[in-house]
Amino acid sequence: MSTLQQIKSGISQAWDSLLDGWQQLYRRAANAITRFRHGDTPEERELALRSSGWGVLAAEVYDDDDKVVVRVEAPGMEGKDFDIEVLENYLVIRGQKNIQQEHREGRYHVLECAYGSFERALPLPEEVIADEAKASYKRGVLRIELPKSSSARRRRIDVEVH
Fold it and tell me: How confident is the model at residue 52 (pLDDT cuts 50, 70, 90)?
């Protein structure tokens, strides 16, 4: 095989590897990437021009015998900033992340934080009792416990040994 063919083969393998890695990253992060819509104040318009308006709200959904627990990383907010509801088989989290500027003068050169209103819908693995859900917010993590409906609860069956 000639040197040129070896280089072409190496580039092709590297490209395939890069493409596979990108597709895996996209599949893992696609649902966590959330669009933030900006408001109408001059500060919000300035931030909208400098940022993409996209942010990551990483989530975990844990399912045990009695409940479904959802954890969402949403730093820089307060508990009152969230609106949470169950719609069909989805937990819908809406919120407003307000601008927190440390400096009133100067310009931002790197702006990766997203601000504005957002909505995230997480599929629930089981049927839940929405009226009995509990939510808490601590250290940038929103935690929601959703009790399972009686039809969705798992029941352990012990086997007697004779």
Answer: low
